[in-house]
Amino acid sequence: MNPLSVKAIFAAVASLVRRPQLATIALLATLGATLGVAIPLGGKQLFADPGLVAHEWGTFTAIAGSDGQPVDWLPVDLVGPPELPRFVEHFRGEPKDVLRGTVRMETPVIYFYAGQETSVSVHVSFSKGFITEWYPHETRLQPSTPLSSEALYQQHDDGSIAWDSITVAPNLAPDFPREKGASRYYAARETSATPLSVKAPNGDQHEKFLFYRGVSTISLPFSAKVLPSGAILFDNRGGQPIPALVLFERRGDKIGYHIATPPQDHAIFEVPSVSGSINSVRRDLEDLLVAQGLYPDEADAMLATWGDSWFEEGSRLIYVVPRQYVDSILPLSITPTPSQLSRVFVGRLELVTPATEESIHAAIASHDGAALKKYGRFLYPIFNVIVEREHDPSAVDHLWEELGASLAASSSANPLAFTRELDVPYIVHRCRGLTGIVRHPTM
Fold first, then answer.
1. Cα 430 to chain centroid, rounded
2. Which of 18, 77, 342, 355 could pair with 377 in a Cys bridge, judged by C-beta atoms 3.0 to 4.6 Å apart?
């Protein structure tokens, strides 16, 4: 038996003692996967052959407009280091941060677990979208031609990526690439997954996982409309139950959240009281991720990757994406077929609540660039939603001018925004140039 697998068994149980109702299920499932036996649970066999196991986690990020539907948006991060190291490959054409879309698929990683060296091939496609970044080197990428910023709104086939010859090797030395600068990319390596190797033009590339990202114009399986009171009108129109949903609120150092597992298909969620803590919401999310099929160290790696972003200033829904929805918009094939395949995706839907709008207006009025930058890469799309509600063209012009002045006055702007020629006037012009916020109906 692989000693790492033994470690995973006890880690799984230890992680779930806070939720006794999940501990028995987790122990049986993990023992079945490790020992290679089929343990019946509720009349179903969970596992068969433990020769190859694959686990995937990732995120879908969107912003809700005034009607609760996802809007067309461009992320512009004005603070912090770049999210990805330079060795990560990317599609040709416009940078991803100026590729328009409604849903940004961020950091899906696929882990493999094998007791002996195994050759694996993988193919994944993205409905109504493109694959924009990946590592290690791919065998095939479609489309392979340069893309324009409007490419997703032109006729196109679904984007896809394939790795034809991946060697999953338990004895592979962990000489993974790493740059000096900080990046959220590296946290995903902190698992007991089996290392892998892929042949590339300049030699073999080693990693702990397959990584890819993308942008799409897919719809979400539900809508979430902000009511004048700040409450959220939730409407699940996709016909697929949402396994779990967290309504999260942060104002400065004050944290509030409410968890529904599962939420009703049609419900109103009131603004949560700001009496929680980052540690408590993190523990609850980790439990939810493990209950959905991730190993505890995988769930911890996911939270280490995205926790700082999920728990930043503002209001949002953080939800477990239904597996049926994931399989329908992100079909994945792995050869040979794993004995177990877990796909756990978390959706983030940013909400422009009255509290958020009030906070941004106050920051603009006082030219408080630091307060504005707390909204990070969501500042401009949130601002677009706010100004869409303003019917006076001169007032809209004034708001954009004041936003630019507030940001330009701040000395903490991300220097990368300027080295890429995305200075404040250009960014304001580019983000304001989204003629008509595009919405897509829910499924």
1. 24
2. 77
Give the DSSP H or E segment for 324: helix 323-329
Distance CA(125)–CA(57), nearest Å, equals: 16
Output the six-digit token pair for 429.
């012009």
Helix, strand, coil proportions of the chain in percent (round to 5)?
30, 30, 40
- Relative to beta strand 332-335, strand 314-320 is unpaired
Q: If you average pLDDT over every residue of the chain, what do you get?
A: 82
Phi, psi of 414 (to 5 degrees): -65, 120
Coil, strand, or helix at residue 373?
helix
Q: What's the rounded Cα separation, in Å, for the pair 185 and 178?
A: 10
Amino acid at 327: D
> How high is the pLDDT of residue 51?
85
The pTM of this model reads: 0.82
Read out DSSP for 69-91?
SBB-B-----SSS-SS-TTSEE-
**What Cα–Cα distance (Å) separates residue 103 from each residue in 221, 323, 329, 384?**
12, 17, 12, 16
User: Mean of the pLDDT values across residues 273-284?
Assistant: 91
Q: How far is CA 216 from CA 61, 66, 71, 167, 278, in A?
A: 10, 20, 12, 30, 31
With a cut of 60, say whether residue 433 has pLDDT above it.
Answer: no
* pLDDT one-digit tens code per residue, 234-266: 999 888 999 999 999 999 899 999 999 999 999
Q: How far is CA 259 from CA 115, 244, 352, in A?
A: 38, 7, 19
